[in-house]
Amino acid sequence: MVLRIADIVRAMTPAKLILFTLVAVSSAPFAVAADLLETYHAAQSQDAVFASAQAAQQAGQEKLPQGRSLLLPSVNLSANTTYNDNWIQYRGAFTLPGGASLPLPAGTSQFNSNGYGVSLTQPLFRQQNWVAYTEAELQVTQTEAQFKAAEQNLILRVAQAYFDVLMAEDSVQLAEAQKNAISEQLEQAKRNFEVGTATITDTYEAQARFDLTNSQKIAAQSNLEIKKRALQQIVNAVPDELRHLGKELKLEVPQPDDVEKWVGYAQQGSLQIVVAQAGVELAAKEVVRNRGGHYPTVDLVANYAENSTGNSAFGFGSDGHSKIIGVQLNLPLYQGGAIQSKLREAEANQNRAREDLENTRRNVALQTRQAYLGVVDGIAQVKALQQALKSSESLLEASKTGQEVGVRTNLDVLNAQQQLYSTRRDLYQAEYNYLVSQLQLKLVAGTLVEDDLARINQALY
C-alpha cells in the first residue's frame, strides 16, 4: 500500500518521529517545504500576469484626473523672437507745395521683433466634457473591479498550479510503488516457473505489466517537470519541496447548501458582472457624449500679450501690450456627417454592451452551478473513492492469499494491484479537485479572499 509522506509521518510514534527528523536533517540540506499560503505570497510579487494587472490598475486610476481636467481652465504661455531683414522701394513721388515733386525714398532695415503672451480658456458649457468626466469615474470603477478579479484569479491559479504539482508527485510515487510491486510479482513468477508451479504465461504477463508501468512512470516524471515549470511561471521559482495533504481531509458542504442562493450571490457580487455592468453604463455615456457633438460650446477666454519691435521701415521701434477678456461661443453646423456617424456607432456599441452583460450573467450562473456541483459531487466522489480504496486493498490481499493457495492466478494479483493504484490516484485527484472547486465557487461569487486559501492551507502537512 502506498502512502504519501504526510500519511507516514502522522502514523509514526513520537520516538520514531524524532528519529526520522534527525535522519532527515543529517542527510539533507536545511530546506523547509513551502505551503500553499507561502506560495501565494511569493506569487503576489513575482507573477507577471498579476504585475500587469497592477500596472493596468495604476493606469486606470489616472482616467479620473484626466476627465476632471476637461472641466478646469487651461493656461498657455507663448513667446516668439523674430529677425527681420526688410528692403522697401515706394512707387511714385512726393509732391511739394508749388508743384515740385521728389522721388520717394528706398531703404533697408534689420531688426528683431519679440513678444510673449499668456492665454486662458475656462469652459463654461461643454456638454461633451462633462459626460467625459462621468465616464472617467466609471472607467476607474471598472479598472478597480478588474484588478480585484485579477487578485482572485491569482489565488485560484496558484492553488491549481500547486495541486497540479502535488498530483504529479503523487503519480510518480504511485508509479514507482506499482513498479516495485509488479517487480516482486515478476520475480515470483520466474521462481514459480523454474520450480514448475507456474507457466511461462505468468512471467510474460508480469513482464508486460512491468514494462507498461515503467512507461507510465516515465510519463509521470515528464508530467511532473511540466507542472513544476507551470508553477515556476507564477512564482518565478521552483520550491524544493511542497507540503502535501494530510491523511484526514475535512469535507465541508458549501454554506448555504443551496445552489440557487449561490447563483443569487454571484449575480450580485460577481466581478465579471461588475465589469460588464460598468461597460453598459460607459456605452450609454458614450451615446450621450456623441449626441453632444451637435451642442454649442461656451468658453471664457482671456489673453495678455506684450510685443517689442526693434525698428520699422521708418526707422522707429515700438513697444506695446494688449489685454483681452471675453466669452466665446462655437456652434458646429456641419462636420461632413461625422457626428451622426459617431452617434450611430455609439448606439450600436451600447446594444453590444447590453448583450455582453446578459451573456456574462448567464455564464456566471452556469459557472456558479458548475462550481457548486464540483464541491458537492466532489465530497461524494471522495467518500466513494475512500471506500473503493479499502475494497481494493482487501481485494489485493485476498488475491495474494488466493494465489498462494492456488485459487487465484498471477494475473488476478496484477489486476488487483492495478486497481488499487488507479483508485488511489483517482482519490488524490478527487481531493485536489474538491479543494479547487471550493475556491472556484467563492471566486465566481466574488467573495474569494486570502483567508479562504489559508483555511485550505491548514489541511497541508
Task: Produce the secondary structure layout.
Layout: H1 5-11, H2 14-27, H3 36-46, H4 48-61, H5 63-69, E1 74-89, E2 93-95, E3 101-103, E4 106-125, H6 127-195, H7 200-235, H8 259-269, H9 271-291, E5 297-309, E6 318-330, H10 338-405, H11 410-445, H12 450-457
Antiparallel strand pairs: 1-4, 2-3, 4-5, 5-6
Helix pairs in contact: 3-6, 4-6, 5-6, 6-7, 6-9, 6-11, 8-10, 9-10, 10-11
Mean pLDDT: 87
| Estimated helix fraction | 55-70%
Radius of gyration from CA coordinates: 40 Å
Please outline the major beta sheet: 4 strands, antiparallel
Cα distance spanning the termini? 20 Å
| Total number of distinct structural domains | 2
Q: Helices and strands, in N-to-C order?
A: HHHHHEEEEHHHHEEHHH
Number of helices: 12
* Large-scale geometry: elongated
Enter the CATH topology name of the largest domain: Outer membrane efflux proteins (OEP)
| CATH class label of the largest domain | Mainly Alpha
Query: What is the level-2 CATH architecture name of the largest domain?
Result: Up-down Bundle
Regarding quaternary structure, what we see is single chain
How are the strands of the biggest sheet laid out side by side? Answer: 1-4-5-6
Class by SSE composition: alpha+beta
Strand content: 5-15%
The low-confidence runs, each spanning 5 or more residues with pLDDT under 50, are 8-31
The tally of strands reads 6
Can you say what the CATH homologous superfamily of the largest domain is? Outer membrane efflux proteins (OEP)
